[in-house]
Amino acid sequence: MGVDRSRVRFLLNLSPVHYDRDGYRGMLDDIRRCDDVGIDEITFSEHVVLPGGNEIPPPESQWPETLALIAAGVAVTERIAFSTGIMLAALRPAPLLAKQIATIDHLAEGRVSYGVGASYVAGEYEAFGLDFDQRGALLTDVIAACRAMWAEPMGASYHGPTVNFDDLYAVPGPYTPGGPPILFAGKYSPRNVRRIVELGNGWLPAGFSADGFKTEMSELKEAFAAAGRDPETLMLHGMPPAETASGGRPEFYGEKAVIAKSFDALDGILENNPHINQFGIGSRFFADDSCADDMPAFIDELGRLIADWRS
pTM to 2 decimals? Predict the structure, then answer.
């Protein structure tokens, strides 16, 4: 049996990118171009603030605010989906975050999903007066509170370790019943499995896996089923490698010249890993002050490669 190429989605990560070309209006032009050429989804990562002296990423890196970028992207497109990979949800007050996401959900008519996680930069939490050592618990509490508000916009109540409220109205509620998809990022661990099963729609793994996290996905589907949830709805926003390049990174996340070669390996990957249905493509080779000028040509070429592979 051949591979069903129609089920495969291609995601382009546009963070971080330095946009000297027409400022950030240039990024909106590129987002429109992605919509036109057939790329399935654009994903953004974020750091809200960075302390001076931070090494990875350097503090001068450009990280526009993620929700603002998505709202702007939704406004200039018709088809393409958007996601975060990841958003630092715990740095935002839960009632505000719930309202922001619900509003974008209406503007996008359900085209946005959210990968959420905790930063590895302690200074980000310190800037917001939050305890970095409690970042996992903060993340869980914020998303649980958002879920409560999305489930009952006309008088929600929630009581958790760090978020508490009674009879809050947050209208409009989300366009998507119960709220848009939430994927928890990070390592595969019992605590993260609980988050995914109780509050999420899927998993955004840390790192890469040669087999596309086959074992972990099987276990997660079993946990979904045990909780009375449909295991076939479980989402995986990973970036499985077509081939491993230098440094252990997949070639889809490497230099422009090798991305085309990676398309040749897709059928073999999909035959051996039928649970994989998307591939992430990185744009980190554009993360300097000049290379964003190459982005329109790269997007056009990527659209051509996707169309040729699907044909």
Answer: 0.90
